[in-house]
Amino acid sequence: MPATNPTDGTALVAGLAESQLHELYYALVRARAAEERLEVLHKQGHVGGGVYRSLGQEAGAVGAAYALNRRSDGSGDIIAQTVRACGALFLMGGKPLDFFRQYLARATGPTGGKEANVHWVDYRRGLVGPVSPLGTMVGVMAGITLSFRLKQEPRVGLVFCGDGATSTGAWHEGLNLAAVQRCPMVLMLEANQWAFSTPTRKTTRLESFTRKAAGYGLHAESVDGTDVLDVYEGTKRAVDRARAGQGAGMVEMRYYRRKGHAQHDNQEYVDPAELKVWEERDPITRFGARLLSEGWATQESLAALKARAEDEVRLAAEQAVGEPAPEGVHALDAVYTDRGAKTPWTRLEQPDPTQA
Ligand SMILES: Cc1ncc(C[n+]2csc(CCOP(=O)(O)OP(=O)(O)O)c2C)c(N)n1
Ligand SMILES: [Mg+2]
Questions:
Q1: Does a structural domain hold residue 340?
Q2: Which residue range is the domain that position 22 belongs to?
């Protein structure tokens, strides 16, 4: 699409106006800033669990979520995020403050300090959340989106999952169900070339995961996961198809996990030359350079967006650090659906600490 006047809100590229391109840049920088701050908090001893980075994958999460109808009243599209999709989580309306509260296991967080990182749910904002067993969310999302189709709700669900997850039985069962039932579901495949320390070449003989999708008769395409506009456009095509009743799809986002599996993993098994190649394709640097070269942004406007994103993240992190850890007495709150039910301590005929 040819460039048009940047000031009047008309589309410049991929159907997006200048303000939207800036929004994408902001979202990319915010995701990276949040994870960088998290790494610092981890080193300072504030984070009890693991810290999982999406360095080099930010354009995937951001470009994908940007293609959705995002609402905060429970009527919009939905995602099942992974730990490497915080950029999508924030775009859907998940707050950086809640993200830090989760990682820091604060009483004030979405799970009250019971679960770590991105394991949280906010149905009104379309966040279905992940579960840890790899591949399992594909079937769950197939089920949810099947309900959209049956109720004739024009809603679409994105389920993110890693390339390693494609080797689980649950992944195949879920995908086949989505294909056969023509669910309005799009699988966002995070093809980052690693599963822990296992390279992709040891988990599949295929050169593209789109061929796994083709095996179930699904529409699938590959996008450059380091190019936020390519991800956005590919996702939009799949989402539009799904919404129009043409069935489930897959978008394979090709990029590279530039950090270890989590903070504890120093990547000693990774060839530094390979890392260097992918550093040169950094999604934020690339998109920033494109915005400048096309005249869609200036050095000053990019610097201002970056400063604003970093401020948002810094304030959220500072607030979360200052908030309290949960009291032990609340350990079983919301574990059972009936909050008025007797606690297991009672069942075991031991003293109920909440009644002490
Ligand atoms: C069914 C199952 N098997 C093993 C694990 C342990 N596990 C957690 S993350 C992970 C690697 C995931 O790799 P991938 O799906 O490629 O995602 P990435 O970490 O690269 O984003 C494994 C094996 C698990 N959570 N679930
Ligand atoms: Mg992987």
A1: no
A2: 18-325
pLDDT digits (tens, 9 = 90+) for 137-151: 999 999 999 999 999
Around ligand 1, the residues with Cβ closer than 6 Å are: 84, 132-134, 162-165, 168, 190, 192, 194-196, 257, 261
What is the whole-number distance in angstroms between the Cα of residue 196 and the centre of ligand 1? Answer: 7
* Residues of the chain under the 50 pLDDT cut: 1-4, 344-350
Q: Is residue 334 part of a domain?
A: no
Q: How far apart are CA 30 and CA 59, in angstroms?
A: 11
Query: Ligand 2: distance of its center to the CA of 192 in Å?
Result: 5
- Atom of ligand 1 at shortest range from CA of 52: 19
Closest C-alpha to 56, from 84, 79, 88, 76: 84
pTM over 0.70: yes
Break the chain down into helix, strand, coil percent, rounded to 5. 45, 10, 45
Residue 333 counted as domain residue: no
Rounded distance from Cα 18 to ligand 2 centre (Å): 33
Domain count, the chain: 1
User: Which ligand is closest to the CA of 261, given by its number?
Assistant: 1
Residues 259-271: pLDDT tens digits?
Answer: 999 999 999 999 9
Indicate which CATH number applies to the domain containing 250.
Answer: 3.40.50.970
Euclidean distance between CA atoms 228 and 225, whole angstroms: 7
In a domain? residue 350: no
